[in-house]
């Protein structure tokens, strides 16, 4: 990779090639409207930028073997942290100047080569700060159990927990605060502190960002209190099981799992987040829900469950469309088995790609596709995906154009149109 990767033209296919928008096929005129419908952008004094409030982490690894014993994985430490994967997921679609992440470090615990590796994704997206609290760069142990697909995580050195006010001494406050923020509730409780600062900055500066939240370890009581102030609530299937106390049968087929997660997604959406609720379900893909427009049916090719008027489930009165979107890499796609290398960070990259789509005003249906594509590149290797520039000047991730994967997923859902404009 070279410094030219920071050029905005590299992340915007139309600027890179001079191409106009891909024309709409006549037969796609009806189905494409589901993807071209944009999210109504809220009036805000923020600038168009996606920023994560997560801490940069150096990752080390262990694995639960078949005998149930945890053992170290013999591989080099690597760039990690849910926020890093999220912002790289967004980076696949947005130029560096539209992204942001703070990196608190010490020179002794984060090598110059690692800092240079990060800057190859674009210097403008990082704010490096020397830690002055006597602690090194945050480190963590990631433990994976392949039998249950459960991923464990614990800090080996303490992080600096960031809040919106942390941005005020960084370039991400210039000329204004970002339009979208992403955060994870680990270690919890954390969400209410972040929201209290959002409220204060809304009062002081008129700031009203899109908020994309991964509620890891947060309690259901907290979620019920703050959901109406969050735009996207996006737990994974393990977190939603914990939150709602779900019972997963020891031997459950995919259809049964889909039923369980569909009901959970409807309950999550009933908490009334401002845009919608998403459950990341690993190899099953994801299910998501938002308030239904009575005049608009689900897009062709989108599996939709619970398309009902005011369905009563106990004390929940809902009018939500729960949709399923497959992962890009699934058993039905050629090359699937060879492409699945390491799922570390895939869910976070999904949330970053989703955040990028919403920040650009895309519908939730399309933003989910951006998230699935971001996750697809993340699982193809250990660590972060590789960024390069193709002969035509477009950015390639692991040698492929992410926009072509977006186009492929949209075509599979009945649309042949892809919107690439970065405003």
From TrEMBL:
Domain Carbohydrate kinase PfkB: 337-383
Pfam families from the UniProt entry: PfkB (PF00294)
SUPFAM superfamilies: Ribokinase-like (SSF53613)
Coiled coil: none
Stretches that traverse the bilayer: none
Protein name per Swiss-Prot or TrEMBL: Carbohydrate kinase PfkB domain-containing protein
The organism of origin for this protein: Kwoniella heveanensis BCC8398
Lineage: Eukaryota, Fungi, Dikarya, Basidiomycota, Agaricomycotina
